[in-house]
Write a structure and sequence with these properties.
alpha/beta, Aspartate Aminotransferase, domain 2, three-stranded antiparallel sheet, 12 strands, 42% helix
Length: 392
């Protein structure tokens, strides 16, 4: 079978690959602690589920506008206006089947062969693949060891072919957060070079240190915000996200969406409306629990000699540097993750998936009991790997 070149150059999602491998071991009766998924373990809050039930009871099961229902688009616009001082209207918002589709709509609408798109390392796994799918070129920005970005660093990567910059704060997988000064300087640089800034802020509500600053606060002409209800409201399976952008671009992306998925699920749209406009105490409760879990993770990681890690400022991941454990048995992060899964029965995501092969990602979106056992297995697995090297 001859497949298209654009498909042949794709790298399958490493996070999904880890989940599949862990699930296969579980099917074989092996007890696996999964620290891989970027998925909240909390149930979707009750008032959101009730809104979905009401939508079903009212037979809200037909097609909607390709842009999403007006009420939801308006609620999203008002959220940005209220929280970030913008002046958006419903016409600036496109509701999508998850943030991933919003990002892909942007790529299709803006990028052409020959365009370069700047992507800081570490990056979420789908950024470079979506850029490659539309035959543009991902260009990876290598920050300092702590993964902190600056306008000066980004400037070194800009060429006449640079079309856009993708930013993610809080960052998946490293948990870094762009502060106001950093972000303002980066947006000013992008404005000078007439670059689009695609700002993925899907973890905006999960901040432990500092504040979340949205790029839309500094520019509404060349900044596109992308977000979803997946992480904030524990609604990953509902597949509901959005983009906020200039009206002309939003119209173009809506035209694309109309030929791809038509529109997001009608019932999910009603649930998302309840999430955004309803009681927000559920978000505070989740953040409080993530904070507790983060402290446990950091405390346990400090006991492991040979790893280095930055304290995550946001999201629910920690990204330790583990290259000191690479040896004949595990030459890179992919080998190491495979070893830990098969020998220690703990699942982590290799840093290679995020462009940082010396690292692995651990998610603490799981119970404290599972977390403690998973970190114990992680520590013991690394120790066993090191003992193999000593014996060799």
């Amino acid at each position: 079978m001859k497949l298209s070149q654009r498909v042949m150059q794709l790298t399958p999602s490493a996070t999904m690959a880890v989940k599949r491998a862990a699930d296969e071991l579980k099917r074989r009766g092996i007890n696996v602690i999964d620290l891989g998924p970027g998925e909240p373990d909390f149930p979707t809050p009750e008032h959101i589920k009730r809104a979905a039930e009401e939508a079903l009871a009212q037979n809200f099961t037909k097609y909607t506008a390709e842009t999403g229902i007006w009420e939801l688009r308006d609620a999203i616009a008002q959220k940005y206006n209220r929280e970030y001082g913008t002046r958006y209207a419903a016409e600036n918002v496109l509701v999508t089947s998850g943030a991933k589709q919003a990002l892909y709509n942007i790529a299709v609408a803006l990028f052409e062969p020959g365009d370069e798109v700047l992507i800081p390392v570490p990056y979420w796994v789908s950024y470079p693949e979506q850029v490659k799918l539309v035959e543009a070129t991902p260009v990876f920005i290598k920050p300092d060891r702590d993964f902190q970005l600056s306008a000066a660093l980004i400037k070194d990567y800009i060429t006449p072919r640079t079309k856009a910059l993708i930013l993610n704060s809080p960052n998946n997988p490293a948990g870094t957060v762009l502060d106001r000064k950093q972000l303002q300087e980066i947006i000013e640089l992008a404005r000078q070079h007439k670059l689009w800034v695609i700002y993925d802020e899907c973890y905006e509500k999960f901040i432990y240190e500092g504040e979340h600053v949205s790029a839309v606060e500094f520019d509404s002409e060349f900044v596109i915000a992308v977000n979803s209800v997946s992480k904030t409201y524990a609604m990953t399976g509902w597949r509901l996200g959005w983009s906020v952008a200039p009206k002309e671009l939003t119209q173009a992306m809506a035209a694309i969406q109309s030929h791809v998925t038509s529109h997001p699920t009608s019932i999910s749209q009603k649930a998302a409306l309840a999430a955004i406009t309803g009681d927000q105490s559920c978000v505070a409760a989740m953040l409080s629990e993530y904070r507790r879990r983060r402290e446990v993770v950091l405390s346990e990681l400090e006991k492991i000699e040979g790893i280095d890690f930055a304290i995550p400022q946001g999201a629910f991941y920690v990204f330790p540097e583990v290259s000191s454990f690479f040896n004949g048995e595990a030459k890179n992060s992919v080998d190491l993750a495979r070893y830990l899964l098969n020998k220690a029965h703990v699942a982590v995501v290799p840093g290679a998936a995020f462009g940082a092969d010396s690292y692995v990602r651990l998610s603490y979106a799981t119970s404290l009991e599972q977390l403690r056992e998973g970190l114990k297995r992680f520590r013991e697995g690394l120790a066993a790997l090191r003992s193999l090297e000593v014996r060799a």
